[in-house]
Amino acid sequence: MFDDIRRSLSGIVCLMLVAFGLHAADVRAAEFDADALQKLQPKLQEFVDKNVVAGAVVAVGTHRGLELVEVAGYQNLSQKLPMRPDAMFRIASMTKPVTALAIMILVDEGKVSVDDAVEKHLPEFKGQMILTAADKETGAITLKKPSRAITIRDLLTHTSGLPGGFPDGIADLYFKRQLTLGEAVAISSQRPLDFEPGTKWSYCNAGIDTLGRIVEVVSKSSYEDFLQNRIFEPLGMWDTTFYPTDNQLTRLAGLYDIKEGKLHDVGFQLLGPTKSAKHPIPAGGLYSTVEDLGRLYQVMLLRGAIGELRIVSEKSVAEMTKDQVPGLTAGFTPNIGMGLGWQVTRQPNGVHAMLSSGTFGHGGAFGTQGWIDPEKDLFVILLIQRLGIANADASDIRREVQQLIVDAIE
Length: 410
Known about the structure:
- The structure is a single chain.
- The protein has 15 helices and 16 strands.
- It is of the alpha+beta class and about 400 residues long.
- The chain has a domain at about 100-225: DD-peptidase/beta-lactamase superfamily (Beta-lactamase).
- Helix 4 packs antiparallel against helix 15, helix 5 (about 95-110) packs across helix 11 and helix 9 packs across helix 10.
- The radius of gyration is 21 Å and the shape is globular.
- The termini are far apart.
């Protein structure tokens, strides 16, 4: 019960700010045009009214932390339960940079190097082969030895060649969280690579899960506990978890899809079980809030530290947010590069047109987005829960929200 109360304090404060009209922007956002920012909530409401989303929470932040939180629509559409600023969202692949951050903490401590072969820490990866041909009729496959073993850097940049998912049957166990992290990674270790390590970018959930397992083996702690003790608790991210409590579930935003032009509830189970789960899913299992993510993004904007609290070294932040694959096509929108766990804007255009070169961030499968622009001293967090968006990284709601906020910078 104490944990629930402690984790709710931040949300209560946020609710009080909104209830009394005391947005953080009113106090601290001298570099924003207040009148321009007032257009943000009506813009969100437009997407609610058009049945694009049931509800949304958006946060605007700078190096000082959150400057503004706006909400629109409903947390639960059928119950007409209004969206609240401390609503919890399944942030899916926005978990990936957090897993990368855990690895870089271990790098700072000298316990791993990003250039370590994965097999150094996980011996089950020894002897991996590359799939060069497969006969669909006979099932026969042809394998060859790769030119080198996959490295931690390959996992962080999605260039390992590991298959991204799992075969039928095993995939069901994975998403139902009935496999332990060790079991899921062991399965990945025995599957042939799709290509030579380092030669291609291919989005790979299995690779990020492998990073989570390395965290466990090297730290001699569960992956979840490592994140809790080294990231979430120091930053006061009390609502960021793989397994929400009953109290937190009352604040969970519903997940929706479009059917015949209307939003319909997809159901909670698609988000994965929150009880009796064996697998945290380092590639995409976290639930969080805008306030918690704001603390994480603030520390990244400040290059790893807030005041006297340092989470990761400035050198590691620089490596995480630098394009590590300049010669490769990466990401899901044009001119995107790949850092260590973070996607990086190479040249602003399209949905990134209003952002600076070097902006870094990540999206999630249910439409969530978070991007940090150091040049503008800005981060923007968009939390929604929507399936069926053709490319959430290039969504209209993301583009229009970012544009409005950037236009409000004085």
